[in-house]
């Protein structure tokens, strides 16, 4: 019996050593990928070696709870957002801007202490690459997206939705943004706008059945179009995040009529809580119209502080290639009823935005 026991012990040691060796081999083999989980830096090989540097936009994405902060830089485009209070930000919120035939060379980070596991998802849209990359705090991820198709042609000008496809809390479905594909100069050819509509319909009727992604598009050939936007009790314009996309002719006089009701419950992020647990309606945030210029700079055109239960009307001349409307930056949300939020009982907070959308400007 003693010999059998000694033999059994010996085999147990063998198996333990084999397990440790296999674990070590696995760790060594996968170590280069550990800190790029979800997207290896090797994806940069998706950018052809003969691509001119001025066709590559270096894109840094910092993901926080419910918001993407996106910095872009290239020889022809740089992310700059000027807010109504004069603050200048070197990034966009939930937005990317690109010209046709350019590559977005993305490096993505989860902001430690301000994010959970998230994911950058850019659907097909007939584009060359699909992006579906996890973003985790403390880990770098990489992805490439090309504003062109697999056969080398350019994507039509338009607004293409991207989103967080990883549940990270109750507002995760509001963490959606747009890639604005705009001209390097001039305005969108009307034929390209029709191609955008056609390609969107094709995508929605084949690979994206049941998942519309791109917001509804409304086109006006009028010289003075008027559009109506009504928020519902869930802080959505026309049941869409982002809100509807409008297309107008260059130099037309555009009027937006916006209505936002007073938020009445926890299903609306405009219904917030103070640090002592008292509910209140957010009232220190701007609603406005912002021009998106050819070089990526975003400037305020008309704006005012949010006003509930009465119309907010904006009129502007369509002189930029695209515009954003609504609330284009997030507000801090803290679910804290009766001051019960704590690290012990649980916390639910983050930066949320949903009442916004874009306007495309086509050649008149």
Automatic annotation (TrEMBL):
Sorted keywords for this record are: Membrane, Transmembrane, Transmembrane helix
Q: Which residues cross the membrane?
A: 12-34
Q: What is this protein called?
A: Oxidase
Source species of the chain: Sulfolobus acidocaldarius Ron12/I
Q: What is the lineage of its organism?
A: Archaea, Thermoproteota, Thermoprotei, Sulfolobales, Sulfolobaceae
């Amino acid at each position: 019996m003693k010999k059998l026991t000694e033999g059994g012990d010996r085999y147990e040691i063998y198996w333990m050593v084999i397990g440790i060796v296999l674990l070590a081999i696995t760790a060594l083999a996968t170590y280069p990928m550990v800190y790029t989980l979800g997207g290896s830096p090797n994806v940069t090989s998706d950018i052809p070696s003969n691509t001119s540097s001025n066709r590559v936009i270096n894109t840094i994405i910092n993901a926080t709870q419910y918001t993407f902060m996106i910095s872009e830089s290239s020889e022809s485009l740089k992310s700059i957002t000027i807010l109504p209070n004069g603050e200048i930000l070197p990034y966009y919120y939930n937005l990317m801007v690109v010209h046709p035939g350019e590559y977005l060379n993305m490096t993505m980070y989860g902001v430690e202490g301000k994010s959970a596991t998230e994911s950058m998802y850019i659907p097909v849209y007939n584009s060359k690459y699909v992006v579906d990359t996890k973003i985790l705090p403390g880990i770098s991820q990489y992805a490439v997206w090309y504003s062109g198709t697999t056969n080398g042609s350019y994507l039509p000008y338009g607004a293409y939705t991207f989103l967080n496809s990883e549940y990270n809390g109750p507002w995760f479905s509001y963490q959606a943004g747009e890639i604005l594909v705009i001209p390097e100069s001039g305005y969108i050819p009307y034929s390209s706008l029709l191609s955008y509509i056609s390609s969107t319909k094709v995508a929605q009727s084949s690979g994206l059945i049941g998942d519309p992604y791109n917001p509804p598009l409304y086109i006006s050939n009028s010289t003075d179009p008027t559009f109506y936007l009504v928020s519902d009790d869930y802080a959505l314009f026309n049941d869409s995040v982002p809100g509807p996309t409008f297309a107008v002719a260059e130099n037309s006089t555009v009027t937006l009529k916006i209505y936002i009701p007073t938020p009445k419950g926890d299903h609306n992020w405009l219904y917030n809580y103070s640090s002592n647990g008292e509910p209140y309606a957010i009232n220190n945030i701007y609603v406005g119209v912002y021009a998106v210029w050819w070089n990526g700079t975003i400037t305020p055109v008309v704006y005012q502080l949010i006003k509930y239960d009465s119309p907010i009307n904006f009129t502007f001349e369509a002189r930029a290639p695209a515009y954003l409307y609504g609330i284009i930056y997030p507000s801090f949300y803290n679910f804290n009823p009766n001051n019960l939020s704590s690290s012990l009982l649980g916390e639910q907070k983050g930066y949320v935005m949903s009442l916004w959308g874009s306007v495309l400007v086509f050649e008149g």
